[in-house]
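Q: Okay, next protein. This is Putative DCC family thiol-disulfide oxidoreductase YuxK from Pedococcus badiiscoriae. I've checked the sequence twice, so it should be correct. Can you predict the 3D structure?
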Amino acid sequence: MDAVTRTGSGRARGLLIFDGDCGFCTTSARFATRWVDRRSRYDIQPWQQVDLGRFGLTEQDCIEAAQFVRPDGSVASAHLAIAEGLKHGAPLWRPLGHLVTLPGISWVAGRVYTWVADHRYALPGGTPACAPTKPSDSGVAGSAARPQ
């Protein structure tokens, strides 16, 4: 699936895009599939299997941060993408998604997301391939995209 898909009733669904080359990101996507969106209210796909140009995204956008394409086609990035996934998931997760977008909390969530993205290669499930900029490129891990 490479697009915002439609349900059997023709309703558009969202799409959470993650870095399929990153073990930490893949583990997080599996968690979302199992616990946040068990009923497949939206699709979860690695960017490597998505027609990114259709959504105005680049490979670099998706290496740096998760992306959520809303049913209307608009895109949320980084912590706001995660918030959208929560808001579109199972009812128990939705309040947390809204909480993440509140002023003040969103600022903190953005900083936490950036730290996690910058260090995902060192987190459970992560590998050196998870580094946003490979250590061999610059000697240090790169910085994740700042939320839009």
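A: Here is a summary of the prediction. Helices lie at 23-36, 59-64, 79-87, 94-100, 105-119, 135-138. The longest strand covers residues 15-18.
Q: Noted. On to the next one.
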